[in-house]
Every structure is written in structure tokens, then in C-alpha cells.
Design goal:
Length: 211
């Protein structure tokens, strides 16, 4: 089985992914794949530097903050970057999902832009993690140490949370604490996977703040 896990920025998607992992899932992180694709010397990084200029590099590595400052203010540049990276990310995600299935694991593909790039065709059912807009802005500002204007720019670049919720098969509402998030993840896991999936590591320790 290949599940999709999506949600807006700072909604708690990665925390939900760790909960699924604790239940035995093999989590495939689109953001981690993206980072590996643009490592120094990679083909993708060369194309990005050619398109945006060498100033996008810092000691040969991608300056992600500078790139984000460009693409979140320019829809055309963001589309160009997505068209470059997402087909490559998707191919690698499918390869890793094949490996997980061959081991008898459920693959969970964690991707913020799952619907935007059409990846839901290959990862089903889809779980969307949502939170209130106010909570999302606050978490994003706290996490990235940015002001409200910068946070709103990032939110504008993504599909609205209510639309993701409408398209998803299951929705996790993440306005509460970690205990409530865990309970929702476990309920979905039992419904989708059933009792055949062995529980992985015990639930992670730590505080109740979901980030």
C-alpha cells in the first residue's frame, strides 16, 4: 500500500509522518528528496544556478533562503522550479515506495504539494493534515522566525487547507496537542491498514507541542 500524506506548511504534517512511522510505515519525505537532488555538483543544482545566477550559491551549495525569497514572490519562477524538481522527486518517491512494499511495509509519502503536482494518482488513500489559518500563521512565524507578511506569502503559494481537506480521503485536524494528533493517526492506520500492520517503535516521547 502507498499512502499520501499532505498538508499546508506548518500544519504538523511532519509530526503526523513520525506518528505513522512509529506504527511501522516507511515514510518518504518529499522535502528530503528535494534537498538530495540539489546537493553540490548535482545536475539539478547546475540548472538552478544557470537559471537564477551564481549568486544563488553559497560556497557551492544552494542558498535555500535566497531561493525561497525569489520563488515565493514570483509565481512564474516558482512554477519553473517546481517543473524542474517535482518530476525527479516523484520518480524517486515511487522507487522508494517499491522498496518499502517489497519489504512488506506501508509506504507513506509526505509531500506538501501532493495534489498540486498530481502525485495523488500514485499514492492512495490521501491523508491531509489541516489547522486553522491563525494557528498556521503563528506556527510558521515561530518556526521560521519570519514576520506575518512573509508567512502569508508562503501560504499564498500553496493550495488552501480547506481544498486539501476536500480532496483528501482522510483529514487530521491539528489544532490540539500531540496526544490528539496521535489518536487521529492511529485511527486512520487501523481503518486503512487493519490489524495486519505490525506496530513499529513505541510512540515517541516528548512534550505535547505540535510544530
Amino acid at each position: 500500500m502507498r499512502m499520501g500524506l499532505t498538508g499546508g506548511i506548518a500544519c504538523g504534517k511532519s509530526t503526523a509522518a513520525r506518528c505513522f512511522e512509529a506504527l511501522g510505515a516507511a515514510v518518504i519525505d518529499a522535502d528530503r528528496l528535494s534537498r538530495s537532488l540539489v546537493e553540490p555538483g548535482s545536475e539539478a543544482l547546475g540548472l538552478i544556478a544557470e537559471h537564477f545566477g551564481s549568486q544563488i550559491l553559497t560556497e557551492g551549495a544552494l542558498n535555500r533562503r535566497m531561493l525561497g525569497g525569489i520563488v515565493f514572490k514570483n509565481d512564474a519562477e516558482r512554477r519553473w522550479l517546481n517543473d524542474l524538481l517535482h518530476p525527479r522527486i516523484h520518480r524517486e518517491a515511487l522507487r522508494l515506495a517499491d522498496e518499502a512494499e517489497s519489504r512488506g511495509q506501508v509506504a507513506v509519502y509526505e509531500a506538501a504539494l501532493l495534489f498540486e503536482v498530481g502525485a495523488e494518482r500514485d499514492f492512495h488513500p490521501v491523508v491531509a493534515v489541516v489547522t486553522s489559518r491563525e494557528m498556521q500563521i503563528k506556527r510558521l512565524m515561530d518556526r521560521d522566525r519570519c514576520d506575518e507578511a512573509a508567512a502569508l506569502l508562503r501560504l499564498k503559494a500553496q493550495m488552501p487547507a480547506e481544498e486539501k481537506a476536500h480532496l483528501a480521503d482522510y483529514v487530521i485536524e491539528n489544532d490540539g496537542d500531540l496526544v490528539l494528533l496521535r489518536a487521529q493517526v492511529e485511527a486512520i492506520w487501523k481503518k486503512v491498514v487493519g490489524e495486519r500492520g505490525e506496530r513499529g517503535n513505541q510512540w515517541m516521547d516528548g512534550g505535547n507541542q505540535v510544530k
